[in-house]
């Protein structure tokens, strides 16, 4: 069910939009606005109207779809090339532990990409005329169906959309399998849906804000993991990598909460749930987009539990060094392999 909610009376009576609320105000206001929109939408929403809304307001060309597919394939080829000719030879030259040689290229590739993508998002939000971070409600100011997308934002969308298309394939066939890999695949599908539909419906302004708030943690995560891999080289322990991995883990834990669990709901969800319907009464696919954004928030909370688990293990002495608690231990991997081999033999 979707999608042309009408604004409740309290949000269209000239009330000034608040830039960023507190948690309680966000929860109560979002509930009030979304419930009112849902109630008013009862007689106006449904599959037929959703189909009509999609046809009337979604704008994406076949050339853009072709460019997306070509870039997704390009990312896969570039990653394979860098892994084969740069990352793996470098890992072997540095004599890191054999168990980390296969995992190091994945982190190196992701660090390179996310550093590039987050730097570009930072440039758009803080070094251009866009004020979406400082004033989140402005992402929907002057919104019009089919409005043109600025070239600099189009480039960001092409880079990010094609990368997440590549990442769905990479998580299944190229990355090390982890305890949260299935959740990661779901995350990539949701992110790709958000990128695709937000571009088609011209919600690109809020999309840039979402990407900025999420990519920073991936930079810190892969930086930390690389220092863990390089901490032991040639049978020797290197203090500098140990210190950098500990600093990275602390920074990662803090910024995960600050960017994804504080700024994300109070900037992005506040704008998408509350102020969007004030700026654009009857905004298309209101419930669809907010459902995806809330699903993203739930996954952020899920992964934050891994971070809490990591902190608890460190504080209680169960873990003496930085490790990715999502990864299977060697004995777990052996047990899974033995189980799979036994099932194959019985088959």
Annotation keywords:
single chain; 347 residues; mainly alpha; globular; disordered C terminus
Describe the structure.
Residues 1-15 and 333-347 have low confidence and may be disordered. With 347 residues, this protein is mostly helical. α6 (151-173) packs across α8 and α7 packs antiparallel against α10 (286-315). It has eleven helices and two strands; from the N terminus they run ααααααααββααα. The longest helix is centred in the C-terminal third of the chain and has 41 residues, at 239-279. 32% of the residues are buried. Strands 1-2 form a two-stranded antiparallel sheet. β1 (232-233) and β2 form a beta hairpin.
Briefly summarize what is shown:
InterPro entries: Lag1/Lac1-like, TLC-dom. The chain is mainly alpha-helical. It is 71% helix and 1% strand.
SS strand fraction: under 5%
Describe the sheet with the most strands: 2 strands, antiparallel
Tell how many strands the DSSP assignment holds. 2
Order of strands in the sheet with the most strands? 1-2
Q: Bin the helical content.
A: over 70%
What is the count of DSSP helices, taking H or I runs of 4+ residues? 11
How far is the N terminus from the C terminus?
44 Å
Uncertain segments are 1-15, 333-347
Shape: globular
Taking all Cα atoms into account, the compactness measure Rg is 22 Å
- Give helix and strand order, one letter per element, not per position: HHHHHHHHEEHHH
Mean pLDDT: 84
Look at the helices and sheets and give the structural class. mainly alpha
């Amino acid at each position: 069910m979707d999608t042309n909610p009408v604004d409740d009376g309290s949000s269209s009576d000239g009330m000034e939009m608040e830039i960023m609320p507190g948690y309680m105000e966000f929860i109560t206001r979002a509930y009030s606005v979304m419930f009112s929109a849902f109630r008013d939408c009862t007689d106006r929403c449904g599959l037929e109207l959703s189909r009509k809304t999609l046809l009337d307001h979604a704008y994406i060309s076949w050339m853009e779809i072709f460019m997306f597919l070509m870039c997704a394939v390009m990312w896969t080829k570039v990653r394979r090339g860098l892994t084969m000719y740069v990352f793996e030879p470098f890992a072997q030259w540095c004599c890191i532990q054999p168990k980390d040689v296969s995992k190091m290229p994945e982190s190196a590739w992701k660090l390179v990409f996310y550093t590039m993508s987050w730097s570009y998002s930072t440039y758009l939000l803080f070094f251009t005329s866009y004020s979406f971070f400082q004033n989140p409600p402005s992402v929907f100011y002057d919104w019009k169906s089919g409005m043109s997308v600025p070239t600099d934002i189009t480039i960001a969308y092409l880079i990010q959309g094609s990368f997440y298309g590549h990442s769905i394939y990479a998580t299944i066939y190229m990355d090390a399998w982890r305890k949260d890999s299935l959740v990661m695949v779901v995350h990539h599908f949701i992110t790709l849906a958000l990128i695709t539909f937000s571009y088609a419906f011209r919600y690109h302004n809020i999309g840039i804000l979402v990407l900025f708030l999420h990519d920073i943690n991936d930079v810190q995560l892969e930086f930390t993991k690389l220092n863990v891999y390089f901490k032991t080289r040639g049978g020797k322990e290197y203090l500098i990598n140990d210190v950098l991995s500990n600093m990275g883990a602390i920074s990662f834990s803090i910024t995960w909460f600050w960017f994804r669990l504080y700024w994300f709901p109070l900037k992005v969800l506040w704008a998408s749930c509350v102020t969007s319907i004030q700026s654009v009464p009857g905004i298309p696919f209101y419930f669809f987009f907010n459902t995806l954004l809330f699903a993203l928030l739930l996954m952020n909370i899920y992964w934050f539990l891994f971070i809490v688990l990591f902190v608890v293990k460190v504080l209680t002495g169960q873990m003496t060094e930085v490790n990715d608690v999502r990864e299977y231990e060697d004995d777990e991997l052996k047990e899974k392999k033995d189980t799979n081999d036994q099932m194959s033999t019985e088959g």
